[in-house]
UniProtKB/TrEMBL annotation:
Protein name: Copper amine oxidase-like protein
DUF3298 domain location: 279-348
Record-annotated Deacetylase PdaC domain positions: 169-259
Superkingdom of origin: Bacteria
Domain (Copper amine oxidase-like N-terminal) ranges: 47-150
């Protein structure tokens, strides 16, 4: 990961003495910034129908699970870096990194910053929203509300290999780290070629724009931070013959903060075609009118909303998540920079007739 966070190692992520040896916070504990929580909000966790010792919590309308569950029960690769105070769970593009620093906790999947929520230190243990495990790490959950039981199972993902290609450059003038996905292993070489060409082309456009910007900017003045450019991606859905991901391009050229731009992709694995809203929601001829109404209401409810939303354009920003579509708007598009990317999930059950599937044509 390429994180630029200053922190005081002496007071963060303190380890616990256990069994005569010093461990980095039991590989899932930290001692600073503890939050107490009532056991009445506890959730019984299961893996493949079998109860485990660790428990989750109900908070803010969501289920949260300890990261130790990913290690001990899901058996995901787990590593703690004492120097950076970072927990790394999973592998490849499904790696979650949770970093503890003086101001709090930051979380990334595949070096893509998770803006919407952050991990929590509760009673000395690190918890994450189960939604991250479902959306990004390849698992699903069966929720039994009457008994507050969450049964975690492996998702049925597409037969597809996703590896990372990239470009890196570091010196006293500039830091460049661009990652983009390369797809293989589906058995459909033509579809893979079509998708890879799109993803590589967009990464190259970003890289070429960096060269142009650097030529325009000239050398960094002595004492200033180097220019920084970063490209990352996050796989958000890989089931039912469809692949969805979102990329983020970041640049810092001096000043108070950098700027980020996002782009969503939804591909059909049958032919490598980029899918539109109409491809997914065609069963509802009024889907656009319905979406505009819902998104307008959500934007109007945001603090600091600038106004001006008239409806989705010809190329709206969105991607897939389990159960629905995730719409987002760029920084400064309708809200202040400090508000981040406004994002709204709208379920397929709100958009399509009962019994219909957005994926029927792609399986």
């Amino acid at each position: 990961m390429n994180l630029k966070i200053s922190f005081s190692a002496g007071i963060l992520a303190a380890g616990l003495f256990f069994g005569g040896g010093w461990l980095p916070a039991e590989s899932s504990y930290v001692a600073s910034g503890k939050t107490q929580h009532s056991v009445s909000n506890s959730v019984t966790l299961q893996f493949n129908g079998k109860a485990v010792q660790l428990q989750g919590l109900l908070m803010e309308g969501n289920t949260w699970i300890p990261i130790a569950f990913l290690r001990d029960n899901l058996k995901l690769p787990f590593h703690y870096n004492e120097q950076s105070k970072t927990y790394s769970i999973g592998q490849g593009y499904q790696t979650l990194n949770v970093s503890i620093y003086e101001g709090g906790i930051t979380s990334y999947v595949n070096d893509y910053f998770l803006w919407e929520q952050q991990a929590k230190n509760i009673n000395g243990r690190i918890y994450i929203p189960f939604q991250w495990v479902k959306n990004y790490l390849g698992y699903d959950g069966e929720w039994i509300s009457s008994t507050k039981v969450l049964n975690v199972v492996k998702s049925k993902e597409n037969e597809l290999t996703i590896s990372t290609e990239g470009y890196d450059k570091d010196n006293n003038q500039v830091s460049i780290h661009i990652d983009y996905p390369k797809l293989s292993g589906s058995g459909n070489l033509e579809a893979e070629k079509a998708m890879n060409e799109i993803l590589k082309k967009d990464a190259k456009l970003f890289h070429d724009s960096i060269d142009k910007r650097l030529n325009e900017l000239g050398a960094v003045e002595e004492g200033n931070m180097p220019y920084e450019f970063k490209g990352s991606y996050l796989v958000t859905y890989n089931q039912n013959g469809v692949l969805s991901l979102v990329t983020e391009q970041y640049e810092y050229l001096g000043g108070a903060h950098g700027m980020n731009i996002r782009k969503g992709y939804i591909f059909s694995l049958k032919d490598g075609k980029l899918l539109s809203l109409g491809d997914l929601l065609g069963e509802n001829k009024d889907y656009l009118k319905l979406l505009n109404k819902k998104l307008s209401g959500k934007l109007n409810a945001l603090p600091g909303y600038f106004g001006g939303f008239k409806g989705l354009g010809d190329q709206p920003d969105f991607y897939l998540q389990p159960g629905g579509l995730r719409f987002f708007f760029q920084l400064y598009e309708y809200t202040p920079y400090a508000a981040g990317f406004p994002e709204f999930t709208i379920g397929f059950n709100e958009l399509l007739p009962k019994g219909s599937s957005p994926f029927q044509a792609f399986k």
